[in-house]
Each structure stands twice: as C-alpha cells, then as structure tokens.
C-alpha cells in the first residue's frame, strides 16, 4: 500500500500546448491517502482515464510528478510501481485455464504453489467462478473474462494500489452489485489503496470513501458522498450527482435573500457581494410543492419512479424538478413551490460561494 502524491500534475496530448484549453488534464495537486478507496467520477472525455494511466505509469505527464510514499515514480515503468490495474475490457490469457489466469501474478513473483492454490480458491469464490477453474478462458463470455481480469487484479495482497478503469462495463447488473460489494469487502479486509474510474454515480457513491469529480480535465470536487450531495462545490457536481440533478436558477443575491424575477427566496445564511454569473442551486429533494406556500410554478408532468414521484415543473420560465414521496397526492391546486432555505447553495461563475461565517 502507498500514499500517492500528485504534485503540480498536468497533461496535454499536444507537443506544444498553448494554454489550459490544450490540456486533457489540468493542473492538480493532491495526496491520495494510504488505504483509502477513491472513485474518479465524470462524463466521458473528462480526463479520468488520463489521470489513472499517469498514476499507473502507462502515461508520462507533460508536467509535474507522481510520488509513492514520497518516492518519485514519474518516469518509473508500471512494473516498478507494484500496482495492479483492471481495464474496461477484459485482458486474459485465452490459452490458460481460469485457475492459471488467476494464479499468474502470484507465480510470476515466485509464490509457492500451496499459497497460490489457497489464494486462487479465495478469489474464485469471491468472483463466483469456483466451478470454472479448470476451464480455458477461450470461449468464455465477456462478463466471465472480465471477472477473471478483476480476480487477477485482486489476487495479490502486497500491491501499492489497485486501479480499476470502468471494470464493470461488460458485467450484468446483478453481478455488478455483487462485485462492488466484494471490492468493498476486499478493501475492508486488506486495506489496499483503491482508485476506481467510472461515469456511473451509483458505482462511485457505493464504492468509494471519497469521490473525485472531474469535469473538462479538471478536478472540481473531492469529497464524501454526503458532501457531494449536500454541498456541491461546482454546478457540474450538483448536476451530475443525483437523479434528477440539482436545480440551477439564475439569481441576484442580496444578503440572506436570492431574487429571481423580482421574487425573494430566503437563503438561511447571509452572503457578501456576489459578482459574475450568479446562480442558486437546490436539489429536488429539498423543494416542496403546495397549494398555498412559496413561488408560483407551472406543472408539466408527474413521473412515478416507484419509491418517489418526480414533478417536472417550470418556475419563471426555468425548468425545475421536485421530488415528492411515493404516497404524495399531487392535486391540480398545488401550484406553488418552496425551498428548504438552509439547503440552497449560491454559485458565482459555477463555483460555490461560501456564506458569511462558514469556514471556507
């Protein structure tokens, strides 16, 4: 296991980048704590895989350093970093049996056969392939091959870090849940530093201790699932986390009030002068529909999502979403919306503004 330090790190695929827009990964400084489980979360093309490949040694960054426990490994090959990486599409040895695929990393490091057999059985049980150990990998389906690839990544206990690049893409939904659970158990039992790349917020939020949200090559927030939900530091985080995402509305801020089209929305906290592109963000969970309180809204439709209802509405010409309980009755007279004042966030040029008196 290792503490991974990213020092002034950035990367461009162009030979002579002229500005920030030419960088696939914009400048980043961060310490990945030894033994933590992280998820890199963001849309396709945001820089997640670029960052993971720099950490693993498959890519040398344009600037900055990568350190493992204080040792500079920026130019060290992958083999010297003592990491295991599992890719989006399975990489297996077709001519080998499932057992020999799982055993390969251990045999390659000279572990005795008794230990190899014990560890392979343990991993095979974890990935649900105990009955297939004697079968050749050739001819197995993509999901089975990916389970082998995952197992081979997890079979060693002595790695500095386990890196996963969207490893569950080809796995069926039921097995995805089981494997995520097993990965969490592996982390709990052995304390590996784990970094998991995904564009799926459910995978990220259920797997990680901390989620690293990326947008346009930049890390916009690193936090626990609760922090990302309660206090998104960037409008992208509010939009990307949650289903549906945060409502973002243009506003003017005057102390502890937001003004939208002349109507006041209480904020619960005071703010100093806010300049630039000013917006407020409120999650659908913290909006309430009623017949007599709040601002006038136009209801468009109500969607039954099983555990709750999603109300699609319009407020002063802006689309908003409201979440109500599964048993809530939505009558035709319920045409007003109010917000939980303490849950409203203020943004300037997409970044959260700190209220007066709150620690930055």
TrEMBL record:
<keyword id="KW-0813">Transport</keyword>
<dbReference type="InterPro" id="IPR003593">
    <property type="entry name" value="AAA+_ATPase"/>
</dbReference>
<comment type="similarity">
    <text>Belongs to the ABC transporter superfamily.</text>
</comment>
<keyword id="KW-0067">ATP-binding</keyword>
<dbReference type="InterPro" id="IPR047641">
    <property type="entry name" value="ABC_transpr_MalK/UgpC-like"/>
</dbReference>
<dbReference type="InterPro" id="IPR012340">
    <property type="entry name" value="NA-bd_OB-fold"/>
</dbReference>
<keyword id="KW-0547">Nucleotide-binding</keyword>
<dbReference type="InterPro" id="IPR008995">
    <property type="entry name" value="Mo/tungstate-bd_C_term_dom"/>
</dbReference>
<dbReference type="GO" id="GO:0016887">
    <property type="term" value="F:ATP hydrolysis activity"/>
</dbReference>
<dbReference type="InterPro" id="IPR015853">
    <property type="entry name" value="ABC_transpr_FbpC"/>
</dbReference>
<feature type="domain" description="ABC transporter">
    <location>
        <begin position="4"/>
        <end position="241"/>
    </location>
</feature>
<dbReference type="InterPro" id="IPR003439">
    <property type="entry name" value="ABC_transporter-like_ATP-bd"/>
</dbReference>
<keyword id="KW-1003">Cell membrane</keyword>
<dbReference type="GO" id="GO:0015408">
    <property type="term" value="F:ABC-type ferric iron transporter activity"/>
</dbReference>
<keyword id="KW-0472">Membrane</keyword>
<dbReference type="GO" id="GO:0005524">
    <property type="term" value="F:ATP binding"/>
</dbReference>
<dbReference type="InterPro" id="IPR027417">
    <property type="entry name" value="P-loop_NTPase"/>
</dbReference>
<protein>
    <submittedName>
        <fullName>Glycerol transport system ATP-binding protein</fullName>
    </submittedName>
</protein>
<dbReference type="InterPro" id="IPR040582">
    <property type="entry name" value="OB_MalK-like"/>
</dbReference>
<dbReference type="Pfam" id="PF17912">
    <property type="entry name" value="OB_MalK"/>
</dbReference>
<dbReference type="Pfam" id="PF00005">
    <property type="entry name" value="ABC_tran"/>
</dbReference>
<dbReference type="GO" id="GO:0055052">
    <property type="term" value="C:ATP-binding cassette (ABC) transporter complex, substrate-binding subunit-containing"/>
</dbReference>
